[in-house]
Specification:
Layout: E1 2-6, H1 11-22, E2 26-31, H2 34-44, E3 50-53, H3 59-66, E4 71-74, H4 85-105, E5 110-114, H5 140-157, E6 162-167, E7 169-171, H6 180-191, E8 193-195, E9 200-205, H7 206-219, E10 223-227, E11 230-233, H8 234-245, E12 251-253, H9 256-270, H10 281-289, H11 298-301, H12 309-322
Helix pairs in contact: 1-7, 3-4, 4-5, 8-12, 9-10
Amino acid sequence: MNVLVTGGTGFVGSHVARQLLGGSHAVRLLVRDEAKAGRYFRALGEGMPALATGDITDAASVRRALAGCDAVVHAAAATPMGSTTAQLRAVNVGGTRNVVDAAVAAGIGRIVCLSSITAIFDPDGRKVTPEAAPSPSRMPYGQSKFDAEVYLRELQARGEPIAIVYPGGVIGPDDPGFSDSCKAVKHRIENGFRIFGEGGMQYIDVRDLAAFICSLVSQGGSGRFLLPGVYSTWTEQADIIEAVSGCHLQRIPAQGWKLRLLGQLLDIARKFRPIDTPVSAETMRYATLWPNIANSDELEKRGLRLRDARDTFDDTLRWMVQAGHLDAALCPRSTP
């Protein structure tokens, strides 16, 4: 099967491309910099995808890249940290429209779009289901995901073959761009781990998420699929990180409302100068209000299972030390 992957040099997209190549699919990536993408995949030594130069915000380049493809995985996205409101809309809304419109027009039968739980987020986990209505947001990232979600559901209602996947926080090894979730883990180890009462977070291993996406490409399937991942309280997460890495975390009791306020203040300050912290109004909203959300039963139906959180954090921290993102002295059990 010929598969186009957008975001193929990003965290999720690169793992999807690697697993598709391992499954003997012909993989094409839409990339802005062919030389950079080529170096990355050659260094992995796991197979080389075809490369098409372009950008999801350029509809013509998307159409060219889709020529001859049987499936598309749309994993490209702008994230809350380091993106302006205009960039979030151009990539998350406009880019999604360009990719999916072109795929539908080309008659592609398997269209898999990576969304986010934030598109249907509710602090009451019982309300976060595939049938839940999209959630408007006052935050620019959340609103961009909402707008893209409304568009995709309109196409699904018309019968277009679209699968939407909603992950929680994504972590794991081999992150080409060192994404926000991995940065947050690094920040907690280096600057103290804030414990938000009895709240927690769900993380899905990038390899498990990629395996599910690849199953949608290989086996087919349309609809909406929640994959928030494995839930742990903040205290449990701190315990896991200490156990697998040997680090000693400074545990800082924190109140959710204060962290949300701090995020708002930092967002204002970022308008005037760069600030190297994963804390923002949007990230703190999810970090302090996240419920325990059920994963799709499609995992079991497709013969897939989620890794234990200890294994995910162990592999993630070992990679972060090996790649130079973390000082080995901080995580003595994570050294090669």
